[in-house]
Amino acid sequence: MGRAAAERLARRGAHVMISGRRVAVLEEAAAAVRSRVPGAVIAIHPADAGDDVAANALVQAASEEFGGLDVCINCAGIYEPVAITEMDAAAWRRTMSTTLDSVAYVGAAAARVMKAAGAGRMVLISSVNSPVSEPESAHYSAAKAGVSSLARSLALDLAADGVRVNAIAPGWVHTAMVDDFLQTATQESLSRLNMLGRVGEPDEVANVIEYLALDAPDYLTGTTIFVDGGQTAMAPMP
After folding, report:
1. What residue ranges define each of the domains in the chain, with the CATH number in brackets?
2. How many CB atoms are located within 10 Å of the residue 190 CB?
């Protein structure tokens, strides 16, 4: 989803910095965007944003590289299923650090830059697991609920400063994180996921990211938009 969003923003002329912990993945993503968007301005900055010092350095690097920061998109997350009775503190902290702490630290750093500029937009990637849950996902669901709550709090704190903050809650989307499920899923199981009976594509989420980052009205802030094929709108299928 992050790569798809980077491509969409680059096509609109945005200068984009992408970040993550794995240099090889960042380089591959940057090369892919450049190959699909001739002339795209793409920078990379390796960082573990679950560390507040690294998160601040990331935002500072982006602001210095491009002479400011207009948009911040937080989409870091990991999903490591484990039953709550078998979860240890390390598993809990690993998910919280990547999925919630990184969003809070980068968001706070970006807020300071945007507040000083008097404008900016943030898009936080939450999940359908923010209002609902599924087996073996207590840590992930709690983290994603925190992301949606954080979007509301940031929006409230920054409204008077011209900064708009919203979240997106994807359902099942075709990414590496759900590959194991998709490899074993039957058509029957897919039909029960949501009212559309399929998983989404990263670009379908990136479409909404682009809208919130560049096109949404100034009056839209503090909300979470669900891009889930109708999953959270329907009762469980028998």
Report:
1. 69-233 (3.40.50.720)
2. 16
